[in-house]
Amino acid sequence: MKRLTSALDAIFAxxxxxxxxxxxxxxxxxxxxxxxxxxxxxxxxxxxxxTVVASAETEQRAPVIPPELLDMIGRD
Length: 76
Hints:
With 76 residues, this protein is an all-alpha fold. It has a domain at 1-40. The protein is elongated and about 100 Å long. It contains 3 helices and no strands.
């Protein structure tokens, strides 16, 4: 049991600096992403603009009634 404990202690002692380095790198990346979001240097997204022109022709047209509803006109 003592050998296993000492072997695990040696393994984890060697892995400890690597884990610290990985944590530091992740923390720096996190800070860099947060700084980018706060800086406001995001490119503007293009806005789709659609121009609608109402002509006199479209305003005078009667609404289209489907044929199945035409025979129901006048029945209430």
